[in-house]
Fold each of these.
Amino acid sequence: MSITLYSLCGTDAARPFSPHCWKIVMALAHKGLDFEERPLPFTAIPQIENGASATVPLIRDGDRLVSDSFQIALYLEEAYPEQPSLFNGDGGKAMARFVEGYSQTVLHTAATKIGVKMIHDMLDPVDREYFRRTREGRLGGTLEDISSNRDAEIAAFPAKLEPIRHMLKFQPFLGGEGPLFADYIVVGLFQWLRITTGSTHLSVADPVTLWLDRCLDLFGGRARAVA
Ligand SMILES: N[C@@H](CCC(=O)N[C@@H](CS)C(=O)NCC(=O)O)C(=O)O
């Protein structure tokens, strides 16, 4: 039976943009599992599966419901041990937690300042109102104020990838010779930027761009196909 992945979209359901949901699209593809993605607007999330989760991604696998991207990856690893590993053991799980922390605190913070107004503009009117109210409360300013520093954030963004550039001197993926969930965590961030802002904000010759190209080519170019 196919797994259902509830994800997030704006007015265009063909362009789901949540970074956390993209992590799970890549993880499900890595595991070679059949799944159906159901992108929904922000204000529909509380009704999914009788209010099972306040956030997406949420998956249904038979009678199991699992939310939170990292928990979903751990669940898939445990439920499908015979499929390619997302972690290659406990060290890979620990490393992925570090990458999640780096991505959330350094990269997402920058991406929010770069893309927040563009995300707003991709939403239905009712979602725009919800998004503006919740994000302005959370970020402590209007979307316009937060976006006013956008050019400086874009200029500062490439330097924030320096830890990945260092890693790429020694290996082609965060996972080593091949991609693991740690890679998909950062792929999710770049899918969010590509789809909502139309750019990765990196040069074509940047080693991070070359790594991202390798990731976007995975699974028949599934992630590259959405932009
Ligand atoms: N820690 C969670 C975060 C999930 C999350 O924040 N998802 C966002 C979409 S990117 C969401 O569902 N937000 C709902 C809302 O803001 O109402 C994970 O990794 O899955």
Amino acid sequence: MSAPSRTALLVFAAAVLAACATAAPVSGTATPLSSPAALPSPAAAPTAPPTTPPTTVPPRPRIVVLDPGHNGGNARNLAAINKQVPDGRGGTKPCNTTGTQTDAGYPEHAFAWDLARRVRDKLTAKGVTVVMTRDSDAGVGPCVDVRGAAGEKADADAVVSLHADGSAPANRGFHVAYSEPPLYPAQAGPAHVLSADLRDALRTGGFAVSDYIGRDGLSARNDLAGLNLSTRPTALVECANMRNAAEAALVSSADGRERYATAIAAGVLAFLAR
Ligand SMILES: [Zn+2]
């Protein structure tokens, strides 16, 4: 949100300069009128009202969709979540999945839901309008194609899906996935920038990039329907490997989730400020 503020300051500065310029004719009027050269002089111009008065640039409303992965009711509604839906590349895939969990049983859907609410509160505090793809952790779905359409439906500037991975116990680190090859303009460039901003913010927050997938914390994917179907800048954050003991402890603690939320909100705000 710093960009609009800078713009406002520049507009204010321009207004001040314009006001200073209008002072010039005071001395200009001291020029003897008998001097014909004084009349057409450009020095007289500032007395005229500006042809285009300074306009204030209102800050653009910012809208972000947060998409907490999976849902608490998915495991009890397998028929619904196994329904095939478009994957965005001509095929189909299940509506949704149950997600993973830590060895101690802390589920990914609960992590994603808690994290999303924390990120939402941080963004809302900065004036961002946040739309969530689900409103509780007790429902079913929504399907990945509905999640993929959420950005356009909300007219969002950015969409961030929140997940955690379930990989081999020795693997660790976060990665940010984006759709590749791109299917819409927003996937070609803006989604890469959003992904890199999230990666940078997580790294700044003290989190290590994945040592088992992607490259430098980023992962190009062609199989994630929510990314494939999105016409808005969209990234999917796999915050940690929930099967790794150290990262399981991190995602299972409120302090850990707060750290993730702080970093992710910072990444989103960095993207919005561009
Ligand atoms: Zn997931």
